[in-house]
Design brief:
Largest sheet: none
CATH superfamily of the domain at 97-304: MetI-like
Radius of gyration: 25 Å
CATH architecture of the domain at 97-304: Orthogonal Bundle
Number of strands: 0
CATH class of the domain at 97-304: Mainly Alpha
């Protein structure tokens, strides 16, 4: 009985503690800045999904008799156009919401491609080293030698701009950052004892890479990916502002700001609300990235 009880107690002590699934949400709720950023980001995501389903307003339909209508709180405003209309009579609120869908698709889609390309190449370059590392990093250096904006402009000049081509071009152009960061992490990890122990027992390189090393480099990869999302959103808006992004009729925030500049003294609302939406989105993604960095860093993580 004593031995059985001791074995049972030993098994209970050896059993891993059940993970607290709500700890991450509690930590987020206690960081007001990160919580505000998350609320802004998820509100935009929800609006971009729900509004097109419940509204029949076409964001590209023109209504010249109602052009440059002010927001609803202005004396001549109307609740039919809560944020007013632009120079072609298009509803600003609807276009801002549709612009959120486009910007978030570009940001997250391009970041997913950049991570999907950069992380495996960074892992391979850092683990194998030698010629493999030299070739991959020289390719990265060549790409870094071209200014990013010039690279985007050159690609979009050759390829017809569309939502899918924007995502692909930005994603492929952004793999270098991911690859270099992951490579530096793998270079540090491959010298540690657990990797040497895995090699000593005859584990294959693929098993060591993707089962042992890769989980240990995911945290910095996730953090950098959030900053990459913000960077791609700003880049897409900048290209549209310059007339090199999506077609002019597309409800894109950069395009909205550019097309409204000519009458900004008379009608401030089309460009202002598009700029506010762009700024809030980038802010939300950035503060969530800062919070994830603190949460995933074991040196900064504390149990609350």
């Amino acid at each position: 009985m004593t031995l059985a009880r001791g074995a049972g107690e030993g098994a209970a002590l050896a059993a891993p503690a059940r993970p607290d699934r709500w700890r991450m949400l509690r930590r987020l709720a206690r960081d007001r800045v990160a919580l505000f950023g998350a609320a802004v980001l998820f509100s935009l995501i929800a609006a971009s999904v729900v509004v097109p389903l419940v509204s029949s307003v076409d964001p590209m339909a023109t209504d010249l008799p109602n052009r440059l209508r002010p927001p609803a709180w202005e004396p001549t405003g109307s609740l039919a156009h809560a944020l007013g209309t632009d120079g072609l009579g298009r509803d600003v609120l609807i276009r801002v919401v549709y612009g959120a869908r486009i910007s978030l698709t570009i940001g997250f889609g391009a970041a997913l491609i950049a991570v999907g390309v950069g992380v495996p190449l960074g892992i391979v370059a850092g683990y194998y080293g030698g010629v493999t590392d030299g070739v991959l990093m020289r390719l990265a250096d060549i790409q870094l030698g071209f200014p990013s904006l010039l690279l985007y402009i050159s690609a979009l000049t050759v390829i017809q701009p569309s939502l899918s081509t924007m995502v692909v071009i930005l994603g492929i152009a952004g793999w270098v950052i991911q690859a270099r960061i992951v490579r530096s992490q793998v270079l540090a990890q491959r010298q540690l004892e657990y990797v040497e122990a895995a090699r000593a027992i005859g584990a294959e390189s693929s098993l060591i890479l993707f089962r042992h090393i890769m989980p240990n480099v995911l945290a910095p990869t996730i953090v950098i990916a959030t900053y990459t999302v913000a960077l791609f959103i700003i880049t897409a808006a900048s290209l549209s502002f310059l007339g090199l992004g999506l077609p002019p009729s597309t409800p894109d925030w950069g395009q909205m700001i550019a097309s409204s500049m000519q009458y900004i003294r008379r009608a401030w609302w089309p460009s202002t609300f598009a700029g506010i939406a762009l700024s809030l989105t980038v802010f939300g993604v950035s503060v969530l990235g800062d919070w994830l960095r603190d949460y995933l860093d074991p040196r900064l993580r504390t149990e609350m």
